[in-house]
Amino acid sequence: MNTTRRSDDLLDLARVLLLFQGAILVATTLEALIWAAVFPGPGGAPVLLSAASAAAVLVGRARLRADRRGTRRLLYAIEGFILGTQLIDVGLSIALAHSIPPLVALLTQVALPLAVATTLRRAALAAGGSAPAMTVAVENAA
Amino acid sequence: MSPLIAHIGHVTGGNPLYQIGAEHVAGLLALVAVPVAWWQIRRRGVPPLAPVDWLLVALLLGSAAVHAGLALVADHGPALSVLFALDAILLVVVARRVLRGSPPDRLAVAVLVGSIVAYWGSSLSGEAPDQVGLATKLCEILALVVVVRESTPRRVIGSLARAFVIVVLVIGTGATSWIGAFRASAAEPGAVAGHHIHGGTVAPPGMVMPAVPQREPTPNERAAADALVIEARAALAKYADPAVAAADGYRVAGMAGIDFHAGNPANENDGRVLDPAHPETLVYGVAPNGEPVLLGAMFLMPKIGEPGPTVGGPLTVWHAHEHICVALTPPGLAGLLSPLGGCPVGTIDLPLTAEMIHIWIVPGAPDPIGDLDDAWKRAYLAGVAAAR
Questions:
Q1: How distant is the Cα of B33 from the closest Cα of chain A, in angstroms?
Q2: Which of A125, B89, B192, B241 is spaced 20 to 30 Å from B251 by Cα?
């Protein structure tokens, strides 16, 4: 398969996932705003962090190109932060409630960031002309 | 419910918002049809689709499988079963078109938007949203993102409009789920106020209410509850002065609002349970004139999952909290876990707390043990300020 075409296809997939994630982060920011009125204790930090993440994901999506390494790094950083936080949540859930987090949390806070990061990585590798072993295996199987 | 599924975010006595409803397990189990469909597709030869189209097919087939499972079990009544079956068929039709290389059309948009908006209606009409329903709707929204995307954007306005619609659908799904979850709890008498009537009640989101037999307290239980309140009033009177509370280790700094909880870390680890003289937390309200008023105390069990002693039977019902978002910078409550699966960014989801119970020492409190209505607190604090 043409590597440029494959990279474009993967970037197309990444843009879809990023718009979905950005929309969830916008909704989370609005919720954080409401909660901040109910629980003023933490100040505006949760609202600001949620808003900044939503903005970064949506701007990153708009600027996403195969040759823009800085945009990819920004998105990796956000996905890493979300995954890191969720790792703590999973640990707490298993330790305190003896259960894993709710299904939707696993989908939007684990599967989605992982999918975004993996897709970006594969797009970058495809653009560089060296598809990862996993991609080659899938293509061979197909 | 299968034990495996029961361990996905399930806490007995919590709100269905964070759980998998028993009537939706069939939908979840029906997802095994997706790998079977994939195997069938591969047998017939894999069509040359872009990754994003494969994602669309998987999401459509997943949603179709869940709806088909719900239609087969028919736990929602015959009318809804027919609608579920119709939705499943239409989703499969759209997936089939994508597999044949046809670009998704208006039918795809209509089916997906219809399914999502129907879920909003269901939530708003009082059916408690659960994890299977929410996950399915989020998958459908993601499918819609694929359907409405443009691989080569022609107009910025058009792209922004599409993105705006997706954001509105996500916000709408979250908002209607919150409303549905709170309505489902409010629809059950005693679930929100009082904490006294249980058995079959639905806890509000974020709260875990243990099942308690629905009955009147015995004379002995009533006497024990009254004695507990009288003892607490006598023991806690000295803490009306926050300086005395601070000297005894209560964290009264930054007191604000009508429901300020001043914790005492030493008391939380002293091994005492429901000791009126050594509560784990004091509850103050700040009157309109700025004067702090001691309203009562909160008693906390030492360990998560350990039930509190119900000395007053149905009059002394303990509760816990689940899926609370906790901020660390600065420390404090930052909300509840969203139906969309996340806490505000930078906060941690505390899945479960130890059981707790409130005793209110202010004269005239409608329920001296359990919940105290915010409106009542405000009126009481206004009365205190007016009397000065």
A1: 19
A2: B192
Q: Which residue of B has its CA nearest to A106?
A: B341
Closest by Cβ to A28, choosing from B7, B330, B344: B344
Of all residues in chain B, the one with the smallest CA distance to A88 is: B348
User: At which residue do the structure tokens 């689709």 appear?
Assistant: B49
Tokens for A26, please give them: 């916008």
Q: Containing H/E element for B207?
A: strand B207-208
Any chain A CB within 8 A of the CB of B120? no
Tell me the ipTM for this assembly. Answer: 0.87
Cross-strand partners of B332? B327
Contact A103, B131 (CB under 8 A): yes
Q: Which of A20, A34, A106 sits opposite B145 (nearest CB)?
A: A20
Q: How many residues does chain A have?
A: 142
Taking the CA atoms of B61, B66, B67 and B71 in sequence, report the sign of the dihedral they define.
positive
Q: What is the dihedral of CA B58, B63, B66, B68, to 10 degrees?
A: -100
Q: Is B298 helix (H, G, I), strand (E, B) or coil?
A: strand
C-beta pairs of B368-371 under 8 Å, 24+ apart in sequence: B368/B225, B368/B229, B369/B225, B369/B228, B369/B229, B369/B312, B369/B315, B369/B316, B370/B194, B370/B195, B370/B196, B370/B317, B371/B192, B371/B193, B371/B194, B371/B195
Q: pLDDT tens digits for B8-50?
A: 555 567 888 999 988 889 888 999 888 888 888 878 877 788 8
Single pTM value for the model: 0.86
CB-CB under 8 Å, A104 with B170: no
